[in-house]
Amino acid sequence: MKHARLLVITDDLPQASLTLAETESFHPDTRPPQEQMLSGVPGHNYREVYQQALARLEKIAKVVPVEETPNLDEVRVIELDELQAINAKLNDRWAEASRFEEGFRRIDEQDRFVREQQASLENFSNLKIDLGALRTKTRFLDFYVGVVPRENVSRLQGAVTLADHLLFTFLERDQSTHVVIVGPRGEQESQLASLLSSASFQPLPIPAGLEDASPERKSDELAAERDRLQAQRDALSAEVEAWSQKHRELLLSARRSLLMAAPFVTLDPSIRSAGHLAVVSGWVPARALEDLGARLRASLTMPFELESRDPKPAERPLVPTVPSNNRLLAPFAMLVKQYGIPQYGEIDPTPLFALTFLLMFGSMFGDIGQGAAIAGLAWAFREKLGRFYRFGVMAGISSMFFGVLYGSIFGYEEILPALWLSPIHHPILMLKIALGYGVLFIAIACGLAIYNRIAVKDLTAAVFGHHGLVNLVFYLALIWGAVGIATRSSFGTVPLVLVVGALMALAGYAWSHLKAPIGEKVLVVFIETLETVIGYISNTLSFLRVAAFSLNHAALSLAVLTLAGMMGPAGHIVTVILGNVFVLVLEGGIVMIQVMRLQYYEGFSRYFSGDGHEFSPLKLRRGPA
Q1: Which fold has domain 136-205?
Q2: Whole-angstrom Cα distance, residue 450 to residue 74?
Q3: What is the CA radius of gyration of the chain?
Q4: Which among 620, 608, 10 has a CA at the least distance from the CA of 303?
Q5: What gap in Å lies between CA 338 and CA 545, rounded to an integer?
Q6: Alpha carbon distances (Å) from 408 to 133, 295, 417
Q7: Of 152, 358, 604, 622, which cross-links 72 as Cys (Cβ 3.0–4.6 Å)?
Q8: Which of the 8 DSSP states describes residue 410?
Q9: Virtual torsion, Cα 202, 207, 208, 214, nearest 10 deg
Q10: What is the pLDDT of residue 212?
């Protein structure tokens, strides 16, 4: 990656911006230039007019469809005068389109009010009386309309009878009953209110506007009103369609012009000027620098200068990282991105992540039939999954590969002889292999951490930092001694010296960088040293889950087949199918989570900072040719 600095005549800025966007290789650098004289911000009026025109076009697009990225037949510079003319035309069109928007808004509000009345009316659909009589209490008559839980109706009916009132039910819905309670006004009102509260009575207010008609009649009136509103909406839609056809080319032309004007506006934070001279700074991949210069020479009519240099050490956090363009690695790159973006100079973890992910998933979920099901489902739903379908296909193929090694087809291990071995018959060997894989994985992760720190010229961290060279020496010596104990019943002198020496080096480094009283320093250094030992041991043991889940997968399949063997022919087939679906969904998901955990916490956390930012070059949005 190179830092590029383009000096151009201010009048050439729109064309220079368009050329930079066409090359799709220029990532703007928004830092202000070091030269104090370059303090001007050119193109203020251009950006202001552009923003107005874009806002008006987006408002119009809410009323009539306007293609977001129409085909750009001709790429050219949009001058300020042309942009102002487009803005004026869009202003006139928006004045017309706003009438349609207001019309739809008015119809929607009226329709919403009618629908609310219809919903309220449903509560009284079975009540065959004039609703206006229920809105106000009379001088001598007291009544209540509401909802009561169905189990409380009989108890409430007896209670209101004692209070000289009558209870009528007119609708039952789910677990509730709609009731009307009628009786004389008088001293019983306070007693009745207490009874209603204890029976969980919920009053139903009668909506305004329903007083002068029965529910059936009012329902017909509301339905007719909705039909009338729908007719108005259809008529207005036809008017909008005619208006859209009339102005379609104008709106598309405006969209194309704004797309071609966008690069100049997008570069706003990266442009500074002094008089007739302007400067644009950004990051360009080294391989694209020559082509960028050639494109600028071909498009700019006035003199310019393109300077480039390597990033300075202090600039490394600002340098963007170019993502991998490999189609097969694209789904794995998406998962890596969930953790973070590698800093410039760091090794892209995507290839290693893809390889180790497939190895672990396949070994933990090895089965020819189930792997084929995963790959087949991913392929069948490739349109919905997008680029992620390749992830499912490759995971399924990995599962099939290990299924061949294990000799497993939908859990059956008698159909195809194992090319290698069956995990459930060799559990100790599987555990040993898992531990060996964990040691190799952690050692590679530490090696990458050392390389990444050397790449950013942080030599101290490469040697003494977490998972640095001293840590790696300690870890490998510890494994060396552990192997010696397992094979010769002796840790060994050389591994012991290396372990003690590495721990002392780490303790000494921590002691020299800790500002605290002596007692506190002793305690902190001791705890950190102990944490290093325990951490590497526990991290290595974490990889036992690779073997554990391969054994668990075989055991679950065996359990399914044992259960199926206890059934008749039809039950056997159903049990095998449902059992394999269960294994695919439940254990497949758990294995996926466990693999991601090992990758994120035992891998990425050691060598991958994840605090970089992705290369996002200036682009010219355009539709298909």
Answers
A1: Alpha-Beta Plaits (3.30.70)
A2: 51
A3: 37
A4: 10
A5: 23
A6: 78, 58, 8
A7: 622
A8: T
A9: -120
A10: 57
Which H, E and C letters describe 540-606, residue by residue?
Answer: HHHCHHHHHHHHHHHHHHHHHHHHHHCCCHHHHHHHHHHHHHHHHHHHHHHHHHHHHHHHHHHHHHH
Q: What is the 3-state composition of the chain as percent helix, strand, coil, each rounded to the nearest 5?
A: 65, 10, 25
- Estimate the crossing angle of helix 13-23 against helix 215-266, to 10 degrees: 110
3 state SS of 308: strand
Q: Which of 341, 337, 259, 267 is closest to 83 using CA atoms?
A: 259
Interatomic CA distance for residues 25 and 619, integer angstroms: 8
Q: Tell me the residue type at 133.
A: A
For the chain, domain boundaries: 2-94+238-318, 136-205, 330-607
Asked if 366 contacts 399 with a C-beta cutoff of 8 angstroms, the reply is yes
Which residues, in sequence order, are bridge partners of residue 282? 4, 28
Which element (helix H / strand E) includes 271?
Answer: strand 271-274
Q: Tell me which residue of 433, 427, 498, 495 sits closest to 469, measured CA to CA.
A: 498
Region of 220 (left: φ > 0; alpha: ψ -120 to 50; beta: rest) is alpha
Greatest CA separation found in the chain? 107
Alpha helix ranges (H) inside 340-492: 350-364, 368-380, 382-385, 389-406, 427-455, 459-464, 469-488
User: Would you state the pLDDT for residue 41?
Assistant: 56
**What is the rounded CA–CA span in Å between residue 392 and residue 93?**
49
Closest by CA to 28, choosing from 322, 257, 271, is 271
Q: What is the pLDDT of residue 136?
A: 58
Query: How many CA atoms within 13 Å lie on the side-chain side of 342?
Result: 25
- Judge whether 33 and 3 are in contact, CB under 8 Å: no
Buried b (16+ CB within 10 A) or exposed e, 45-69: ebbebbebbbebbeebeebbebeee
- Torsion 123-126-131-136 (CA) sign: negative
What is the pLDDT at residue 272? 80
- pLDDT tens for 466-503 read 899 999 999 999 999 999 999 988 999 999 999 999 99
* Pairwise CA distance, residues 615 & 344, whole Å: 10
The amino acid at residue 77 is V
Extract the residue ranges of the chain whose pLDDT is less than 70.
33-43, 116, 119-120, 122-139, 187-189, 205-216, 623-625
Check residue 625 and give its pLDDT: 47
